[in-house]
Amino acid sequence: MDAVNNDRRVRKTKRALHEALINLMSEKDIRSISVKSLTEKADIHRSTFYAHYVDIFDLYDDLEDTVMFELEHLITENFSLKLHDYFRVLFNYIDENKNLCRLLFTGEHASCFLARLTDLFKAACLENWSGFMGERGRHEALAYYAEYHLNGGFAMVRRWVDSDFKYPKEEMVRMIAGLDAHISKYLAEEQQTETLK
């Protein structure tokens, strides 16, 4: 078997294991999930599981890492879009991965995932703001603005997930894009004020 087919097969196997874990974690605590029940759910042999993972927690870590990689790719690929279009891409990802997002935003490991997510988006946020903030872009205050802004945004997303996505997706996009635009405008105006001093 050539490397391309083997790589495709590995990705398919891992995706099946991820999906099985997501489904099982919607029903029970991760500590109650056995490799046997997981592999039966994924229709994959136990030896195949152990060829990739040490245990269920290792699989969960890989699931989180995969989401972080996909989101980092989405941020990088769409960073130059207008705010509304940029946030639509991100909300489409959530909409297309509802069960996964229920787990990550509201499950027992949500706080760890949200801390990683905050770090990922903070880097993008600071890069965006420093583009028009000049020297002030490296100021410690920006990190505080980013924490405030991101934690508020993620709280809104968490509420949306918690409500089973009842609020219209386009309204979520509009609200968060609008808030992002307002804080960027505020920071730009603050920079102008500092420059005039």
UniProtKB/TrEMBL annotation:
DNA-binding region: 34-53
Superkingdom, taxonomy of origin: Bacteria
Classification via PROSITE patterns: HTH_TETR_2 (PS50977)
Keyword terms, alphabetized: DNA-binding
Classification via PANTHER family: ACREF/ENVCD OPERON REPRESSOR-RELATED, TETR-FAMILY TRANSCRIPTIONAL REGULATOR
Name assigned to this protein: TetR/AcrR family transcriptional regulator
UniProt domain HTH tetR-type: residue ranges: 11-71
One Pfam family recorded for the sequence: TetR_C_8
Species in which this protein is naturally found: Corticicoccus populi
